[in-house]
Design a protein that fits this description.
The complex is a heterodimer of chains A (369) and B (413). Chain A has twelve helices and no strands. Chain A has 369 residues and is an all-alpha fold. Chain A has a single domain, classed as Amino acid/polyamine transporter I (Up-down Bundle). In chain A, helix 4 packs antiparallel against helix 10 and helix 5 runs antiparallel to helix 11. The longest helix of chain A is centred in the N-terminal third of the chain and has 43 residues. Chain A starts with 8 loop residues before the first helix and ends in a 7-residue tail after the last helix. With 413 residues, chain B is of the alpha/beta class. Chain B folds into two domains: 242 residues, no CATH class; 143 residues, Nutrient germinant receptor protein C, domain 3 (GMP Synthetase, Chain A, domain 3, 2-Layer Sandwich). The radius of gyration of chain B is 26 Å and the shape is globular. Chain B is 31% helix and 27% strand. The chains are: A mainly alpha (369), B alpha/beta (413). At the A-B interface, helix 5 of A face helix 1, helix 8 and helix 13 of B.
Chain lengths: 369, 413
């Protein structure tokens, strides 16, 4: 994501949606069901409202820093040291989460289609794709993402609709699932599902219409909430076993139940093909944001070197886990709490402190350029 | 570096990486695979289990007559688990067994009585096997069942296995029990699994029907189970009735009529024929074509700690049996018939539900899911222990049959 890239409102919404949708494809709904059980739908409505509140605050906090991203704001707050720290934290966040994601998805594909193929080959194929996409430039993959996202969104809705006949609606009861405290207090940790908000920290300088920032933020959170609701409902209504049996790619399992009479069966392969393209797009975007932050904090000019460097880092990090148990650990508790820490604690703290500093310095509502 | 050179390097890299994915690179090309259509599991003599594999014959082009049935190959092996049986069979046939076209998994009754969760989990753990694969419990050895399952109206055995369970939709005499459904019910706190009941029928019709215990002669038609029907056919195997499980253990069976009520309650049947006593001649039966007019209504109350189940079935249908004496064209006669049918089915459904509760002690109808609304949290429901309490359940059944008319012949007035 170079500084001169300009993104439209629709493209920005899909960019933020990409994070959640691809995690939905992987394991997100199962992780939510694991925490809140039959109250998951209630919990999603609750955390969507909380996320909307957070986004409202975010828009308020960014109001005094138009056209600046979180790196610029941290520079304003603590100078270069803080800029480096925040930049590195976000680079690590994007790089680590995408490497865990890549490894987990490749392991799932390996289990389904390529049992005998070393996972390394699958990882390398994705990494080559990501490098190639990043070399093509930001505009190309942002547009490609805008094309692919509606298809992915439709695929999730289709899985919901085609499985209606397999639904047991009573599974949404008992209404409070594992208990009221779990649904509304510890269940608030499911906010990690809205980790796509992280992109909101970097969007202000890139928007073609900066006044649309608020609309982009609210629309993307509302759409994320709706699609999360659909995907969790699909799993909740079909499988009592999804939490107890640790199925990987649970949405893929749901797609295996789809049949159109006796003629059209095994449609899961089509869904998987769509998702593979979507995941390449998602990983390319994550890489692009990492490169953008790196260039911003180091002012390094040679983009290709950074792309290759980050690609190697992505590959090496994704090869580190020894087994699926480690991958699950990194994918769920580590990703969950790291996302909550970076997106909702670090980002917010920086913005709040920057606003306080701004008030102290300017003693008014003047904006920072 | 010129663009041309870059392109060559890029393409070379892609080709090198793509090579391992090409089918001919590995042993996974179609010629090296043996496609299974059925697996049978029996208790072994020398090991834990005897696994029977039914393969389609590779490259069979049907040189014989067009009506000739495609031959299959049936091999058996004794092993400690399904996975080691597959490995042993892979060694024997020198091809890799592929489960992606497996249509049925047959467990012998004796094996199923020992519990089959390990086998179900092992099979579900394999990505090749489909969740819509049917699960059959055979009253005879699974090997015999597979050997005797020869399609008479189909050329391909795979198609026969594929089509056979569909009769469930319009007969209701056998459930379309699938592996995915069985697996989910194994992990369910509100229901128990079922499977299709199969057997081979080698008894003479007179012997098999004499074992029926029924007050009415006409009821013998539907009080049959697999292996005891009066069907005479070149295909000795048959699937009639339901195998009932308590968690993973086979505990009993439902006959054709009970299976039909089971499917009506679960709303998993499009239509069915039910025979009720004729009001003119109690020894004669009157056949009705019935279907659920709307979804069955199930309400559950907890009375003195035990479940009290209110079940309302709203059936609609038409008369199938008419003769020259039939007089079913007046509203009064139709109402009379509807009342008689309601009463008959009401008693039969009540008996069926008490059989599941008191005798089989299993909630195969998934009534427990309707009790979920009575609890606020999952720990509350878990501590209530529905599946244990179901044994003490009381049933209030209300069947409303609305007989509309006969089909083309209304009968004399």
């Amino acid at each position: 994501m170079s500084s001169d890239t300009k993104i439209g409102s629709v493209e920005s919404i899909f960019l933020i949606l990409t994070v959640m949708i691809n995690h939905i494809i992987l394991n997100l709904p199962k992780n939510i069901l694991e925490t809140t059980g039959s109250a998951s739908l209630l919990n999603i409505i609750f955390i969507t409202l909380v996320a909307l509140g957070i986004v409202y605050l975010l828009c308020k906090l960014f109001k005094r820093f138009p056209g600046l991203d979180i790196i610029d704001v941290s520079h304003f707050l603590g100078g270069k040291p803080l800029k480096y720290i925040i930049g590195i934290l976000f680079i690590l966040y994007f790089l680590i989460t995408s490497s865990i994601f890549l490894r987990s998805f490749c392991e799932s594909i390996k289990l389904i289609f390529f049992q005998r193929t070393p996972v390394f080959f699958l990882l390398v194929l994705f990494v080559i794709g990501i490098v190639y996409v990043n070399k093509l430039g930001n505009n190309s993959f942002i547009r490609a993402n805008t094309l692919i996202m509606p298809i992915v969104l439709i695929s999730i809705i289709l899985i919901f609709i085609f499985n209606l006949q397999n639904f047991t609606l009573e599974r949404m009861f008992p209404v409070f699932g594992k208990g009221i405290p779990t649904t509304f207090f510890s269940g608030i940790s499911n906010l990690f599902a809205f980790a796509g908000i992280a992109f909101l920290y970097f969007l202000p300088p890139s928007l073609t219409q900066p006044n649309q920032y608020r609309t982009v933020a609210f629309t993307s959170v509302i759409l994320s909430g709706i699609w999360l609701l659909f995907s969790v409902a699909t799993l909740l209504y079909i499988f009592p076993s999804v939490v107890t049996t640790d199925e990987s790619l649970p949405l893929y399992f749901a797609s295996r139940y789809i049949e159109f009479g006796r003629f059209f069966q095994r449609l899961d392969a089509i869904f998987l093909l769509i998702w593979i393209i979507s995941i390449t797009s998602y990983l390319s975007i994550m890489m692009s944001f990492s490169i953008h932050i790196f260039r911003k904090i180091t002012e390094f000019k040679y983009v290709y070197i950074i792309i290759y460097g980050f690609a190697i880092a992505l590959l090496v990090l994704s090869l580190l886990p020894q087994n699926m148990s480690q991958i699950y650990f990194l994918e769920y508790p580590v990703y969950k709490y790291y996302s909550l820490f970076i997106v909702f604690i670090v980002g917010f703290t920086i913005l709040i402190l920057a606003n306080l500093k701004h008030r102290k310095l300017k003693k008014g509502d003047a904006i920072i350029e | 570096m010129s663009r041309y050179l870059k392109f060559i390097i890029f393409m070379t890299l892609i080709i090198i990486i793509a090579i391992p994915f090409v089918g001919s690179y590995s042993v996974q090309s179609v010629d090296d695979l043996a496609y299974l259509v059925a697996i049978g599991i029996d208790i072994g003599d020398k090991n834990n289990m005897k696994v029977t594999f039914e393969f389609t014959r590779p490259n069979y082009s049907g040189e014989g007559a067009a009506t000739e049935v495609s031959p299959t190959i049936i091999n058996s092996v004794e092993a400690s688990s399904i996975d080691s049986a597959i490995t042993l069979m892979n060694t024997h046939i020198s091809k890799e067994i592929n489960l992606s076209h497996c249509k049925v998994i047959v467990f012998s009754e004796k094996f199923a009585s020992q519990g089959i969760s390990e086998q179900i989990y092992s099979l579900m753990n394999r990505s090749q096997i489909r969740p819509d694969t049917n699960v059959i419990v055979s009253k005879c050895p699974a090997e015999d069942f597979i050997e005797n399952s020869q399609p008479s109206l189909e050329n391909l055995v795979a198609k026969y296995y594929d089509i056979a369970p569909i009769s469930s939709d319009y007969t209701g005499y056998v459930p379309n029990a699938t592996l995915g459904d069985f697996f989910d019910r194994l992990n369910c706190e509100t229901c128990h699994p079922t499977a299709m009941l199969g057997s081979i029928n080698i008894d003479s019709p007179s012997t098999s029907s004499s074992s029926m215990d029924s007050s009415f002669a006409f009821e013998k038609d539907s009080q049959i189970t697999a292996g005891s029907s009066s069907i005479e056919s070149t295909n000795a195997s048959e699937m009639i009735g339901t195998a009932v499980f308590y968690w993973d253990t086979f505990v009993g069976e439902l006959n054709a009529q009970e299976t039909l009520y089971h499917l009506l309650i679960r709303d998993e049947i499009e239509s069915c024929n039910i025979t009720i006593p004729s009001s003119y001649n109690t020894n004669k039966g009157l056949d009705l074509f019935l279907y659920n007019e709307k979804k069955p209504k199930i309400d559950i109350q907890i009375v003195n700690g035990s479940p009290f189940v209110h079940l309302t079935l709203n059936l609609e249908g038409r008369i199938l049996s008419v003769d020259s004496d039939s007089q079913y064209d007046s509203e009064e006669k139709l109402n009379e018939l509807s009342t008689a049918a309601s009463k008959h089915i009401n008693a039969a459904v009540t008996n069926y539900l008490y059989k599941t509760s008191r005798e089989l002690k299993t909630d195969i109808d998934g009534l427990g899911k309707h009790a979920l609304t009575l609890f606020l949290t999952e720990p509350d429901f878990e501590s209530y222990d529905w599946l244990r309490k179901y044994r003490d359940a009381t049933f209030d059944v209300n069947v409303n049959v609305n007989v509309k008319s006969a089909f083309l012949l209304g009968g004399d007035s």
